[in-house]
Amino acid sequence: MNKSKALLVTGMALLGSALAQTTLKIGFVSPLSGELAPYGEPAKNGAQIAVEQAQARFAKLGFKLELSVQDDQANPDTSVAVARRLINDPDVLGVVGPLTSGTAIPASVAFKEGNLAMVVPVASNPTLTERGLKNVFRVYGRDDVQGPAGAEYAVKTLGVKRVFVVHDKGAYGQGVAQAFAERAKALGAQVIAVVGTEEKVNFQPLVAQMQAAKPDLVYFGGYHDRAAPLLTQMRQRGVTALFMGPDGFDNSEFVRLAGAATKGIYYTSPAGPASQYPSAKPFVEAYKAKFGKEPEPFALFGYDSAQVIIAGLEAAIRANGGQKPSREQVVQAISKVKLNGATGEIAFDAKGDRTLARYFIIQLKDGTFPGVVLKSVAVGAAK
Fold it and tell me: What is the CATH number of the domain that holds 287?
């Protein structure tokens, strides 16, 4: 056989191998546009790295692994529509996301109907895993721990006695704010007010209430896009109370929007900076090489969520004799996954919650991101 014929045969063999590969897809659902895109983009980047790292392994098994990225704009209706789109694609065998509690809870019902596993990287409302849905898994912590952890630190460490609580009326913001308020009250603090508002821009009437109430601390349950103007207007009107919130503050966009007003504020998060996770170093290096910057905290959880699905897919393929598994088989395999991810050891309880999650108290001491970790605790899943 001459050289040209040999090359032709080799090329045809490679083409045949490529054509013979079965496509497997992992869905990714997150806000990638709009006000909450700063959370979704890092998580997407993390999931993308996980899939790319696994593609060669899957190719050897005869599968082409892909990431199907969907933007739900943090809108519950859009998230359900995206869920149904993914369900209707038979190649999708698992989904990373949705990212927010307000979208993950309604979308999870649709995913259950389609027997499609979802591994949420961030959504923290306890309701998500309290409804007996066997297809739902969470690599993140829960707000019924995060909220009280903030209250414990505020009352016991900061010595706060009078608290003014505000939330955005969302599933996430309201839930974590109520958990904070209940624990603060149980510890002996006076909860002056618990106020829900859908305001996004003008917080002057609310700030006026704070001026009259004179709290030691204002707690805001919600995301950075509303926390930033609230905090800015508080400081402009001379409200000097301490300011605290949940992981909705945990991104650099908050500092960009609120600027110097963020100096000294506190927040809690089940996602610490990458430096807090010894096993995250290879991921951090891969992220920097691909995207040219340090990963923000949610990137690690996007990566680990995808890693969980990938491990579940590999186990289900083995159990199915090397053939493409069913969605039910993937759900079963994910429920048994145990791996050492970028954020540490990952395994799930019967509810789908992580058996051990870490929670961090963080301060933006000089108004720069990431902040300084003041305290961290590891807490087992709720019984």
Answer: 3.40.50.2300
